[in-house]
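BACKBONE STRUCTURE TOKENS:
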Amino acid sequence: MKVRAIPAARPAARALAVLLLTALAVAGCAPSTSDNSAKGDAKSGTLRVWLFREVDNEPKEKVVEEAVAAFTTRHRDVEVDISYIPVDTRAQKIKAAFNDPRSAPDLIEYGNTDTAGYVKDGGLADISAEFAAWPETADTDPTARRSVTVDGKVYGAPLFVGVRALYYRTDVFRELGLDVPRTLAELAATAKRIRSERPELYGLAVGGAYTYGAMPFIWAGGGELATEEDGGRYTAAIDGPAARTGIKAYTSLFGDHNCPAAACAQWGGNDTVQAFASGKAGMAIGGDFSHQAVESGAVKGRYAVVPLPGRRPGDIAPAFAGGNNLGVLKSSGHRTLAVELMKSLAGKATQAQLFDAMGFLPTYTDVRAEAARREPFVAPFVRTLEAGARFVPASPAWASIDASLVLPTMFQEIVSGRKDVDDAAEDAARKMDEAFRS
């Protein structure tokens, strides 16, 4: 097996590429994709694979090498060429591959919110039949299955899932005699009390640019980001009454009583987790993928994790289910082999190994249950998934909405006082509808 690492782009080039990508997404003028239909289905030769490069990539490489070795033992006339590509420039690189099948890989790793856009671009192969015939997929959780599905057809295999829950400081709660919040209202009250009695701390670290941390507040009260109409088209629902209630609940957490807007309005998810890990916050909404950062921080041994509560005691607020998938390119001249390799890399055995090596949460319910049994820190995230995680609209427009920062802008306008909830939500809905129509 040949393993070739692609070096990360230089900072200046990377920044320029990201700016160009954002401009294309916002303007809706991404270059059209050429005809990239496969010209055959060879049963030998070289399979080219693009996977994402992680911050610490060596453990991932070892797991992948083992899976590939097992695959090539079964297919002795096949070589597998693995390239690890930078995450921050993946979009333009993958788009270029869609437009130039001669240089394209056979199999790619991609973010699960990119599925609909890549399908619209004509880049991913429909593998519905192979997915349905694969016995292991009977245990794929429903949200992960939705992340590879567009208009009822399957365009890949879920590789791992990421979900968020509530991290809290056990020492601070013990010192102040606090109970773990059972509702979102109790969460706000607890955050306010921590800030009042320990003013050097943020009660609950929140961020104006933390879209996926805010979504549970919208969903918990029955709000929606958008609704799907007949024909698969979406209409914004972020300005609906229930959604506005959730927006108000989230933005009310910004201020001197909890997390001052001057500091927190620009924060994203990493900033809120870092505030917690460094000992500057009593609580934070973080992912299973945040565990290592928190363990490496100042609060090691002084925190616990529970599902983020909902509106009523016993409820779990719906969380966004992020993660990555694997997909076969429509242009692949080795479709059958590429699907088989996809099964090896996204199968139960490999997902279990990726959890052990990287902490990636498996998408199979049985594999995930075993992971939770062996590693107790996983249990709150598994409970959150089992309670019903949510996903973004399965529309190619979501990439444009995300890139143009529609939701962070809405939150930031509210917490800065430039707009009230009603006006900001209406403006965000208008921008979303423009993207959906285009």
User: Anything to note?
Assistant: Residues 3 and 82 are 5 Å apart (CA to CA). The first strand starts at residue 2 and ends at 5.
